[in-house]
Amino acid sequence: MMKRLTTLAGAAVVLVLCGGVSATVLHVPGEYGTIQEGIDTAVDGDTVLVADGTYTGDGNRDIDFSGKAIVVMSENGPELTTVDCEGDSLDPHRGFFFGTGETSASVLQGFTITNGWESGGGILCWQSSPTIFGNTFIANATDFRGGGILCQNASPVIAGNVFTGNSAMASGGRGGGIHCSSGASPAIVGNEILANTAAYGGGISTNNASVAVLGNTMLGNTAEFEGGAIYCKGSTMSVTNCILRGDSAGIGYEISMADGSALVVRYSDLEGGAGAIYVPPGCVLHWGVGNIDEDPMFVLAEMGDYRLIWDSPCVDTGHPDSLDPDSTRSDMGAHYFDQEDYVTLYLTPMNTEVAPGGTLEVTYTAINRWSFPVTYWALSEAILPNTHTRTVMGPDRYTLWPHAWGQQLITHEVPLIAEPGLYQYRARIGVPPNTLYDIDTFRLWVVEP
């Protein structure tokens, strides 16, 4: 799905990528066999650009930025570019290491990092402050700290990522998604943190840290003992513009505090409200203004689409002093509702892999914010692996009532002669010939039966 996600961290990444006219682009594997070889050759200001594929083995795990102010990014995003650490308890490995004083100019962007087994199974940040943007951390594990990311005395920006199915499950395991300790002060901004597990802090845990948690969506995380979404120990933390729902733990099913922690929660949607936070003696909770306990009204949560419907109580109810990229008041959660369009289209695929002769199912969500009915035409296309475009539906005519939204499941039969490979599905709504209301896209694979 096309993500409507822009953060301050994202803007910083754009600045990095656009700066330095003399920078060199080093291609992996076209010019350098491994990601580490590309990094070793790069100098400050360069970009190591990694082609689509799954990267394994030496040089493609335990990857060290070596203090360089470079951008390491995939060509086409985490859906198509995977670092598979192939780690386990007998042969531990992680994805990346930042431990030589890296700054925000050291950028990692656009990878799926999986099967790490180590403290910081996906990434270890030690005494460094990199930018970690737009990655997916899935099925990384540790028996100790930080299944997805471990921050020790580090101040990274962790923005626009997805953490799902990561774990830190030994009896003292902390932070299935992220653990921050030893004076760490990260900014955790605009991430989806979903279905991670730990003994303490299924989503995020801290120990002697100062953490800003801003604009995240945290759902379905589990802690065996304390802090389903967040475990805050001996730390200061602010939680702002976040959605925390459906998390579970023995104590503090959304948040648990310990050892003199101080926590501020404001402009956030917490299931159970302040009652979902365990505050033992010696800790201080400031339950600030703007908090709610309401259904956030995701587009299609059961299919993992956590964008917001226009009627959501999380739209325009975030912190009033911060604005979304559409210049409206900030929303709660990782995805803002783009109000530049008065008619909005969302596509949610039921499956993104299908064989020739199989069925592709897509839920269309259309939203009309006008005060009058809107008639529009919908046209859907498939962009083939050879870049040719084929119309798969429409143009078909629809009408939406004022201030209304609707959903429809569309089914496509994939031709038996469809060539296996990567396709793009694209739908547009508007009024021909010149008015385009909105467009949304997603990628799918046609695979051998």
UniProtKB/TrEMBL annotation:
Signal peptide range in chain numbering: 1-23
Entry keyword Secreted: yes
Domain (Right handed beta helix) ranges: 122-278
Localization annotation: Cell envelope; Cell outer membrane; Secreted
InterPro entries: Beta_helix, Pectin_lyas_fold, Pectin_lyase_fold/virulence, POMP_repeat
Domain of life per record: Bacteria
GO CC terms in record: cell outer membrane; extracellular region
Annotated keywords: Cell outer membrane, Membrane, Secreted, Signal
Protein name per its UniProtKB record: Right handed beta helix domain-containing protein
Organism (species): candidate division TA06 bacterium SM23_40
